[in-house]
Amino acid sequence: MYGAANAFVEAEPMARNSGRSVHLRSLEDPFIENWGTIADAFGMRRGTGRVHALVYLSLEPLCSVRIAERLDIHIDQAEAHLRQLCAWGVVHGTDCVVEGSRRRVYDAERDPWTWFLQTLRERRHREFILLLMSVRNVSDYSSELLQSIDPAERERLAQLHLRIARFGVFFEELAQLIDAMTRLGKGPLFKALKMASRFVR
């Protein structure tokens, strides 16, 4: 899954090797920018997505200095992005001795599905549960209000309550779907999707 740390040789930054920089950067740069945009759509900061894309593409583990140089960002920014990626489990850091000094280098999980499912899991934990609780609170409040409102307004409020309650049910079902996807993992998820596809042809 990850590169062996003891086999690490200091990674040449992708821009340092002039023989490969022009051609490879023409492929790497749009990939990095696209990944940053996709990451942003899934709730990961765009800059974090760009760092992830670079580590994912690199054939050797990279240190934060090389990442900062390649993406033209400050070293502190690179390290902050790397900490988040490690916390999410999609990048792995290893300490190595390079030219007599100790450095931490980073490699990425190569399966994009692992990134996708882990990102879903983290978003659910960090953001989705709070949003779900808020939706539940609004639905509960509309139910309480319906019991105490003036009869003249009750019919309109009942319609509003129904729409809010339906959205609450949708959110509950969506939470269950996210839980199922992240718990199943790639293999069982693919099998389930393949079986489902047979019924919609």
Kindly describe this structure.
There is one protein chain. By secondary structure, the protein is mainly alpha-helical. The protein folds into two domains: 5-109, Orthogonal Bundle (Arc Repressor Mutant, subunit A); 113-197. The protein contains seven helices and three strands; from the N terminus they run ααβααββααα. It has helices at residues 18-41, 46-57, 64-71, 75-88, 112-148, 151-184, 186-197, and strands at 62-63, 91-98, 101-108. It has a three-stranded antiparallel beta sheet with strand order 1-3-2. Strand 2 (91-98) and strand 3 (101-108) form a beta hairpin. Helix 1 (18-41) packs across helix 2, helix 3 crosses helix 4 and helix 5 (112-148) runs antiparallel to helix 6. The longest helix is centred in the middle third of the chain and has 37 residues, at 112-148. The two termini are 35 Å apart.
Shape: elongated
- Count of alpha and pi helical runs: 7
Identify the CATH homologous superfamily of the largest domain: Winged helix-like DNA-binding domain superfamily/Winged helix DNA-binding domain
Poorly predicted runs are 1-20
Biggest sheet character: 3 strands, antiparallel
Terminal residue distance: 35 Å
The count of β-strands is: 3
> Percent of residues in beta strands?
5-15%
CATH architectural designation of the largest domain: Orthogonal Bundle
Task: Specify Rg, calculated over alpha carbons.
Answer: 23 Å
Helix content, binned percent: over 70%
> Which class best fits the helix and strand makeup?
mainly alpha
Tell me the CATH topology of the largest domain: Arc Repressor Mutant, subunit A
Question: What is the CATH class of the largest domain?
Answer: Mainly Alpha
Q: How many domain regions?
A: 2
The helix/strand series, from N terminus to C terminus, equals HHEHHEEHHH
Strand order of the largest sheet: 1-3-2
* Overall pLDDT level: 79
